[in-house]
Every structure is written in structure tokens, then in C-alpha cells.
Amino acid sequence: MTKTPLQFRHNGRDVALFVDGGVNLLVALRELIGDMTPKFGCGQGGCGACSVLIDGELHLSCLTLAETVNGRSVETLDGLKEGPNLHPLQRAFMEQFAAQCGYCTPGMLMAAKALLDRNPSPTRAEVVEAISGNICRCTGYEPIINAILAAASGGRARA
Amino acid sequence: MAKHRGRGIASINYPIGMNLGGDPSQALVHSNPSGKFTVSMSSIDLGQGMKSVTRQICAETLGVPVEDVYVDTADSDTGPHCMGSFASRGTHRVGNAVMAAAREARGVMMEAAAEELEVNAADLETDGRGNIHVKGAPHRSISTKDVAIAAQFKQGKTISGRGIFLVPLSEVNPETGEMSPATCYAHACLVAEVEVDDETGEVAMVRMDSAYELGRALNPRLVEQQLVGGAWMGISHALFETPEPYYPNPAHGPRDFVEYLMPGPGDICPHDIAVLERPAADGPFGAKGPGEMCANPVLPAVANAIFNAVGVRMDELPITPEKVLRAIKAQGGARPQARR
Prior knowledge:
The complex is a heterodimer. Chain A has helices spanning 25-33, 88-95, 105-118, 124-130, 142-152, and strands at residues 3-10, 13-20, 51-54, 57-60, 73-75. Helices cover 31% and strands 17% of the residues of chain A. Chain B is α+β, with helices and mostly antiparallel strands. Chain B has six helices and eleven strands. In chain B, the strands form three sheets. Chain B has a four-stranded mixed β-sheet. A four-stranded mixed β-sheet of chain B has the order 4-3-2-8. In chain B, helix 1 (50-62) packs parallel to helix 2 and helix 4 (220-239) packs across helix 5. Chain B is elongated. Chains A and B meet through helix 4 and helix 5 of A and helix 4 of B.
């Protein structure tokens, strides 16, 4: 099969690779670039574990053809930390015990980042809406919602 | 057509661990010349905090800072045997094994320290900050690191300990069927409030109030995390998920996350939890285990709340809108019960 050349920005760095037709972005990120932070959950857009930002918009990388991100900017959890420091969302997730097995965490963090980037002071209902495409089996969602609200209020943890 | 509020209560007892084969787990503890300790085991941490809690138990028993303990687990090829992470047994069974191993290692460490300080080991105590000193004479002191180095390079001793926890197998009395399957029980009580739509059969969670008695909470944040997440799973079992919706007919089972229903972040409700601590006589530092029992009281409490709201007794899980609606129709309409 003919391979297609593909160039895009991956967490602020230019990458160039050749992909087979029909390869999705999740496979390109994990298997061709080696960024294992987006997770394969269901492969059909039902769980949100593979969530990434494309030009700042939240997308399911398992349902995105890799070729469609040519020339665009893709952000994954791998690029979330700021140098040696954790992103405020990552710190809040830690402080609020918002992870147990951790498999949904990358998708949750990217969904939360997409929300806070466009709405820095969301209501609880807006946080719920923002992560409603992401399945978590362990936490019961409550600590995740609290973590996002805490990060939004500048790390001041809610009681 | 209306929405009806109802409240239901349920109480449970939950046995910690199981009886099969005595339900043993093992752990090994040894020091490195750096003065740090490693716990070796094969017990799985699948997010519930097994590594954190065994690390705490080991550090507390050895009398060293928690930062000085590493937990190496989950390789059943090389680690000492564990029955597994299930039956709410991790903290209790594995914790006891780690405690026994750490106690033995502490004995060797104190003997090695005694040799260095030229005193009797019985006269020594740990300060919890990485030092061992003579009781009443803190200046006669040696660091655990220096003890580890002396043991390794001078005395030729391994500072190590072995631990196993085994509940003697309880035989079944063939006459009466009587047995003692567990030595330790946790308890919980939960009140669920729901809103039932008698037009659609939908059940919405309004709030939950619960009290869990689980021995000593060795790590209160991890316990809370278990209880919050476990109660969500209880809601899910009560109202949403099933692999076989027409059981025992296996047809129409869900095949993926689109068909396998679970409550999303918009389906949860406020949950006020009280943790009651009554230390267990045979638990590590009195701990039982906040495992599966987190979910258990939710199911009967929700079923009772539905009865209180619309007067139908639901006895099959999950309690789907279809089942509720059929039951309401069968009794000729919603019959809200008295609120207490």
C-alpha cells in the first residue's frame, strides 16, 4: 500500500512520518511516534481514553484519520507538563485523589484542559458536561470533577 | 404522571477475605546498604492503593520514615505467593504478612545496631526518622543507613524478614453445615434517596448518606477514594449494567461501551460518608478492608427507595426503566409509600 507523508506539530515539536492509508491518529501517535499517553480504550469513540487536542479542540484520536492532522497541531498528555513542573490540572488530580487505575486519566486531563482553555471558571455542570464523553470505572467521577474545579480556582481545593 | 421521591435504607456485614485453603499471603522485607527497605510481594495494586498501604505498614513496623520503604510487587514469577487482590483481603491479609516480615527484619536491624552501639538490643528504640538510639539516651544513636552498612560489610548479616498470614482453614461441620469462613467483618449502612418518573420508569439518584465501619482507616484519603468510587459502582450495578439483560437467555448482551451502560458524571449524586473506626483484633494496626463492601449496601438501599417512591418491589438487577415501568403498570399505577 502506498504510504502518505504526514507532517504535524506534536506537543510543539514538528514531526514527519509516513502512514498507511486509513491509519488513525491514535495508532500514529502510539506506534509511529511512541507517545503512549493517549490510551486505546474501545476504538470506537465510546470511552474518551484516547482524547487529544487538535488545534486546541478536543478530539477522539481513535476516530481521527491520521492524514487529517497534516499541518495541524496535536497536543497529548505527554505535552501537558510545563518543563519539570506538573500542569495545575495534573497537580489537582493528584491532590484530589482523582485517579485509581489511571487508564482514563490522560483522556480526562485533555478533556479538562480543553474546557479550561475556553472557560477558565466553569460551573460544576459545565465540568460534568465536559467530561461526559469519558468513562471512569474507579473513581465515581466525584474526585475528578472536584479536581477540575480546584484547578480552575487556581489550585484552591474545595472543601 | 409525576416524579416521586423515595428513601431506602440497607445495612450489610462483609467478611474480609475468604476461607478457601486458609487464604494465605506472603511478604518479604529486606534492607539495602543505603538503609532503605524493600517489600517484595506479588499482590496486585490495581489502583486501590495496595502499594501505599503496605508501604505505610512496613515503615510503621520497622520504625523508619515511609520515604525509606519501597514496595516491589505484582510479579508472581519472582515474588512470594499471594492469593490475589479480591474479597476485600488486601489490606488485612497482605498487610498482616508485611507486618510480620517487617517485625522480623526490625529484630535483625536492632541486633545489628546493638552490636555497633555495644548495648543490649532490648535497650534500643527507633525514632521514626531513620535513627536508632538507646532508650533515654538519644545521643547514643546510629542511623539505619549505618546499621545497614555495618550489617552488610562488617557483621555479614542480612537485615531481612519473612511474613505470612494464614487463617486456619475452617472445616464445615457435616451435621450442621456450621463453619467460620471469616475472622473479621466490616459493616455498613446506607440511605439512598431516589426520584422515580412514573411515566418513563427512570430512576435518578438524589443523594446518599452512609456510614462504613472498616476497622482502622490506615490511609483515610485512600479509604474515602474507595468508598466514593465503590458507591458509584453500586449505583451502576443497581440501575445500569449487566452483561446479560435477558438472563438466562444470553441474547442481546452488550458488546461495547455504547451498549454496556454505566452511570456517567451526570448521573452521580451527593454522597455524605461517615467512616467509623473500630480496630479489628487481627487486622494490621486494626485495619479491615474497604473493598467490595463499598458497593454492596447501595443495591438494596436503592431497591428499597424505589419501593418507598412508587410502591413496587424490584427483585431483579439492574433495575432498568423498562422493569420499573412494567411493575408500575402491573400494580395499576404508582403507589407512593409513607415517608419516614
